[in-house]
């Protein structure tokens, strides 16, 4: 009986895919915790009627910090979704996958940080210079989504049962048993 040696390229590609999946799942879940906590802090500032947050002269701060919380929470969920999507597209070009991952990681920091920093220092009702991070993050997010959409369109999704029978879902195993 002959033994089959694993292909080193396939193993390294699988490790790389695992790295990106783990990276985005960790980033997504921890970011979700951070931005949900920020939302609780903002609710606390509102409940305690803290002036530097609620005064009419600080309306810009309130808006931008709310936008930081909302965008950060949404981007955290996008990270989780991206990590799950990677598992469905193992044949996606690794170079484009890496670029999409990097763009999404940067956007996940720049957009909420830009809103938060923009609201931290207000100039006569105008946001601070930190707001300039938001358009850059928006462009990177656009690139990440575009690359992911193209990757999903050009890659044939692989079901676990296609690549490894031991990873077939319970439903697939039931179908085979009938």
Query: For the report, how would you describe the main beta sheet?
Result: none
Task: Determine Rg (CA atoms, Å).
Answer: 22 Å
**What's the number of extended β-strand segments?**
0
Number of helices: 7
Shape, principal axes of CA atoms: elongated
Number of domains: 1
Q: Given the helix and strand composition, which structural class is it?
A: mainly alpha
Beta fraction of the residues? under 5%
Uncertain stretches of 5 or more adjacent residues:
168-176
Provide the residue-averaged pLDDT.
Answer: 87
Q: How helical, in percent, are the residues?
A: over 70%
Provide the succession of SSEs: HHHHHHH
Cα end-to-end separation: 31 Å
Walk me through the structure:
There is one protein chain. With 178 residues, the chain is mainly α. The chain has one domain (12-177). 76% of the residues lie in helices and 0% in strands. It contains seven helices and no strands. The longest helix has 40 residues, at 8-47.
